[in-house]
Amino acid sequence: MDGQRVYFQHVGKVKVKWHRCLPDTAIIxxxxxxxxxxxxxxxxxxxxxxxxxxxxxxxxVGIDLGLKSFxxxxxxxxxxxPRFYRQAQDKLRRAQRAVARKKKGxxxxxxxxxxxxxxxxxxxxxxxxxxxxxxxxxxxxxxTIAHENLNIKGIARTSLAKSxxxxxxxxxxxxxxxxxxxxxxxxxxxxxxxxxQACSVCGALPVTPLTLKDRVxxxxxxxxxxxxxxxxxxxxxxxxxxxxxxx
Length: 247
Description:
Helix content is 39%, strand content 22%. By secondary structure, the chain is α+β, with helices and mostly antiparallel strands. A 5-stranded mixed beta sheet has the order 7-6-5-8-9. The two termini are 43 Å apart.
């Protein structure tokens, strides 16, 4: 690797365009490349020094992931889901029809397939950019972040599959995890049992369980009334801090 070129075994030196510089403390373990619809990308697998995690109880937050709002925090903040896939459905539908109309093996079909792949890649990049910006904002504001340990694969097999894949919870949590490690922020995953159903003030469960249509939480015991997602985020924070104290 010499500034503008990277050496690959059995290939030689290849000119590359750098999007970001590698950290000075990074130790490169492997270098590989893969083909994407917009060209070839070089991937560096690096070893970085461990970052000491300094937890701050005064700067802790609980987040509740959902589909109505992408996430709600225990401080009352709500982030709307971007819905990149749903917004691009018309373009994708036209691109898929263009592929179907082309003769197999023809250059026109190859170009149509490439156009469709670029549309999917654009949606993927939009979603990843949204996740990166949101996780960066969280780790800059908070020293401790608690979230539910969701069964994402199980939810993706239900009627909510399209919306679940569109928000990309798994990618968001993965990015949050490594950004928190870099920033020295503690991330705590807590069991998702009853975080939505229990009252965040008194801990009582409702007589009739809440459904997805119920957006307001009203406790029959302590008479607390709040947004359903806010109530869940406060439960997540309380459980997260209790687990942090035990460890």
